[in-house]
Amino acid sequence: MVTKLEQLYEGKAKKIFKTDEQSIYWVVYKDDATAFDGKKKGTIKGKGYYNNQISAHFFKYLEDKCQVPTHYVETVSETEMLVKAVEIIPIEVIARNIAAGSLAKRIGVAEGTKLKKPVLEFCYKSDELGDPMINDYHIAALELASEEELAEIKRLAWLVNEKLSAYVANFNLTLVDFKLEFGRFRGQVILADEISPDTCRFWDSTTQEKLDKDRFRRDLGQVEEAYQEVLRRIRG
Ligand SMILES: Nc1ncnc2c1ncn2[C@@H]1O[C@H](COP(=O)(O)OP(=O)(O)O)[C@@H](O)[C@H]1O
Ligand SMILES: [Mg+2]
To answer: Do the bridges between strand 32-35 and strand 40-43 make them parallel or antiparallel, or are there none, so unpaired?
Structure first.
């Protein structure tokens, strides 16, 4: 077991601590919730627990069954996990199967419309700029990732989409869209950050009921219950 040392940084949903092992960080998942570039703030009771457990579950599945390299090392408490210390690539990678949220608005299609082909989007991870959408050319111009890294990011994002969509379908969940972050670790691009109802849209496949952070964003109620339900389903 490693020892938790000083805090490196605190984000909107997690705190990252150093450990006595240089290559390992200690992540604490928080109950804090934000939306709309931090303009809406609140707390979701139990979110730190649900997101830690749900993320661990998905990371293990992707690593063990799908050949997706991830930062996940081990779960150390209800709300904490150890991860590989990566250099985060400052790109939010968004994959979309069904139009929802900002995409539905931007391209003028009704939320819930299945896309003929899934869409991949990139945003520049910058709170000051409000995470603006960028493309391959901006990524090259800003040197956010090399061509090889970007190709690997795309390959992994599509692989995660395919594997995770099929996996959650077993639990009567539809993976509408999701956001990934990648990092550099020992010369390799690996999946980092979290995979949770904060970063994915999950809809009940039968009723289309939202089981994700949109319940918080849109004040739909039963927020905590939605996170709990996702964990309950994937645990089986
Ligand atoms: N394995 C990792 N190594 C280093 N940093 C990480 C790792 N996984 C996630 N992070 C970073 O930890 C920070 C805290 O996460 P979070 O609270 O979700 O931040 P944000 O407010 O940017 O959403 C983010 O900047 C995220 O990119
Ligand atoms: Mg985050």
So the answer is: antiparallel
